[in-house]
Amino acid sequence: MSPPPVVLTALAVVTLATLLFSSPASAAAARRRPRPFEKIFAFGDSFTDTGNTRSATGPSGYGHVSSPPYGVTFFHHPTNRYSDGRLVIDFVAQSLSLPFLPPFRGLPSSPSAAAHGVNFAVAGSTAIDHEFFVKNNLNLDTTPQSLLTQLLWFSKYLESHEGCRGKACRGALRDALVWVGEIGVNDYAYTLGSNVSGDTIQKLAIGTTTAFLEALLRRGARYMVVQGLPLSGCLPLAMFLDPLGEKDDLGCVKSANDQTRAHNAALLATISNLRKQFPDAVIVYADYWYAHYTVMKSAAKHGFKESFRACCGTGEPYHFTPFATCGTAFADACPRPSEYINWDGVHLTEATYRVIADMFLNGRYTHPPFRYMLSKKLRSG
């Protein structure tokens, strides 16, 4: 007697879950099995950017990402990723038996170049349109691209590589995973010390993010993961800028962490509303704040020996200064990045991204669980 379909679906989901972060042999076997998704379209900022920003065009405070030792751990050369190796989105792609996502900028015109998706994330990108910062004289040393820019790029990609426009592109998104990485930290950072309030930034950023997500859903996105913001108050940059500020239970800048937590609460409310508007879509919230918190709270458990100092940089007490960041001639890197949570004072190490990706894909830090999305995709075909 054959098992009922629901049992077969459950078995398939378990099989997929066991393949995530498995051995090379198992990964090779996974590549021979049908993929749950054929493509990934990624959006966000430097935590997700796989090469849309070069050091010559990005904010100087982010360091020279095109220079060593960026990329030293996995790729063994700079790939314009803000880390020593892979990012969360890279681990997501690998877990789904897909290649690393090429950045939209410089993407060849041939269809094969984007056969398995594209990354539109840009380091320094904001949720709010760049014109807002220009009008408020806050555009010095900022990235001009915003979520609106990434949406325009996506439209150009659909027209040039998929041959469709608007709602006619639903077919191109049917088997795609849309991954919206964290976006919004830069909005708060660019207005630090200005007359623009955090409440204003939250309202505008959530509003533009909502419009962005709605646009993707109306075009046919059915499987979407939206990341919240991380613990911005635990980054060496925040600790450097506010050394005497009130600290939370982790020893991080409390005001910054409270701000990103409040932002995430508003984002989650937006996602809840979108689920009602688009009941046929699966919209997963990835709780970056709580995942990052868990890593910081139990660093040793995850193999980390250094929670606050940046691996790559210079200066005390956090091995970070905005004037001699990673990739410059003045900076140096630690010998074992895998023992550090933070890479360059603003971004995380590959080891940290690996742990967080595992939390998203296999743990309890996505709502609903990522496995639920996989099961829905398997049932729909």
Q: How many domains comprise the coordinates? A: 1
Supply the number of helical segments. 13
Count every beta strand, where a strand is a DSSP E run of 2 or more residues: 10
- The helix content, as a percent range, equals 25-40%
Query: Termini, distance in Å?
Result: 24 Å
**Strand arrangement in the largest pleated sheet:** 2-1-3-4-5-10
Please state the average pLDDT score.
88
CATH topology assignment: Rossmann fold
Tell me the fraction of residues in β-strands, as a range. Answer: 5-15%
Q: What structural category arises from helix and sheet content?
A: alpha/beta
* Element order: H for helix, E for strand: HHEHEHHHEHHEHHEHEEEEHEH
Shape: globular
Q: Which class in CATH terms?
A: Alpha Beta
Q: Largest beta sheet, briefly? A: 6 strands, mixed
What is the CATH architecture descriptor?
3-Layer(aba) Sandwich
**What is the gyration radius calculated from CA atoms?**
20 Å
- Unreliable spans: 1-32
CATH H-tier superfamily: SGNH hydrolase
